[in-house]
Amino acid sequence: MRSFLLLLVLVLLMAVQSPLFAVLGIRPSLLDLPLIATLYLASSSRALRGFVASVGVGLIADAFTPGGLLGMNAEIHGILYLLALGLVARFPLSRPVPLLLVTSVSAVLKTLMFYLFSVLFDRAFEPRAEALLWGLPTALLTAVLSPLLFLPFAGVDRLVQGRRPTESLLR
Amino acid sequence: MIDFLVRHRFPVVVTTLLILPLALMYESGRRDSASSIPERATMAVAGWLQGLVGGAVGGLSGAASDYVALVNLHEDNERLRQANERLVSEALEAKKLAVENQSLRRLLEMKRVRHDLDLVPATVVARELTPFFRVGRISVETEGGAPQADQAVVTPMGLVGRVVRATGSTADVMLLADTRSRVACEVLGRGILGLMVGSGNPDAYVARFQVSQTEAPLEKGAVIVTSGHDRVFPRGIEVGYVPRPEDRRQAGPFVEYDVMLVVNPAALSEVLVVRGVAGQSRPAANP
How many Å apart are CA B218 and CA B244, to the nearest integer? Predict the structure, then answer.
């Protein structure tokens, strides 16, 4: 139920992202909401449930990303979840600085994995080193705003279970 | 067996859920233009939701700007508040209608001028959500006008891109700036043939025009139009112009020019899908 609600919140946020950013004159691709959702799951869920939900997050990202290969984000987010799970023990994601660091590293890894999978599976993909740089603004902005972007997902937890996994973030 | 699966459920589930997307990716990458059932299903749901939310956000944005205008009016002149409220509201509505009218007139004008093209109007419902692709999502609202893969998408200004995936009335349109985009083009009035390749640059809407080394150098402002040789894009649709021919460079056996594209997709709300060209049969979509 909790995972379903978290995914529902992500769907709504992603559906709003494109038209809202267009109205504000901001490039919609500047925020990576699925990455935030995956990191939130890694910081607050049981391993197996969180992993399944993270693959779900990736599938949602695939559906909302026109032009990509179906399954690419699902694969990337599954792997990112496992990596984040390992990092959570050392870097508590309920604090802004570790969260910022982990988000930055995850965003860079996501870019590298996107590049690798595109080379392997997308026949039309033209491997160019500069493509790796296109993900940098998204990585930076997502990392900077990650403590704020955690809030909608933390709100679901408060609503459902009364849990406060990220309550120290804005104190 | 069941006991083994229960005991090792974490590695079993993880392995399964990591292999499944790989299979999906392989299948999705193998098909060039034909969409698989999972692709069509996810695209239909996401496209419908994006269209719905896009409409709601547009409506709320309009209401918010109306509200701001009315608050300012109230501060300026309390005595005439109600009269101004009505007038401003009417003026905004009229302006909105005028802009919409102008846009629709341009679309109609194009349909009249290019009567060789079978065009259907479409609304842009979403823009790219990844920094790596330049692909937008459109919704065709005309009855019987369902888009198909490899149909060209244009505006009265020029070429936008081509449909790469379609389901029902929703389609994903690869824009000209996408690195995977290839369009057969020619230089207007000079007949120099070449290939327009997307630059992928997220900060500027530009592409690269590749011509044979044996061709004479292009001049500043040379207009690039579609040549129709790829049988996807109809001939004579404006694509862009060469702003700085002196910046040309060698790219393998070609000379490459930067091209400023005429259509800025960030500002698009309505487009036209080319369903067919008079006297030209479409090549079959790749299986």
Answer: 9
Counting Cβ atoms within 10 Å, is residue B13 exposed (0-12), middle (13-18) or buried (19+)?
A: middle
Contact A69 B29 (CB under 8 A): yes
Phi, psi (degrees; rounded to nearest 5) at B174: -80, 120
Contact B178/A at CB under 8 A: yes
Q: What is the ipTM of this complex?
A: 0.80
The rounded distance, in Å, linking the Cα atoms of B286 and A104 is 39
A:B CB pairs within 8 Å: 166
**What does the DSSP 8-state code read for residue B280?**
B
A157 touches chain B (CB under 8 A): no
A38: nearest Cα among A72, A7, A2, A71: A7
Distance from CA of A31 to the nearest CA of B (A): 8
User: What is the predicted pLDDT for the residue at B76?
Assistant: 65
CA–CA min distance B168, chain A (Å):
15
Residues B174-230 pLDDT 10s: 888 888 889 999 999 888 999 999 888 777 788 999 999 888 899 999 999 999 888
The nearest alpha carbon in chain A to B172 belongs to A66
| Measured distance CA(A135)–CA(A80) in Å, rounded | 16
Question: pLDDT digit string (tens) for A29-88?
Answer: 788 999 999 999 999 888 899 999 999 999 999 888 877 788 899 999 999 999 999 888
Alpha carbon of A62: minimum distance to chain B alpha carbons (Å): 8
| Residues in A 65-124 with any Cβ partner in B closer than 8 A | 65-72, 74-75, 78-79, 82, 114, 117-118, 121-124
Task: Give the pLDDT score at B259.
Answer: 94
Dihedral sign for Cα B221, B157, B193, B259, please.
Answer: positive
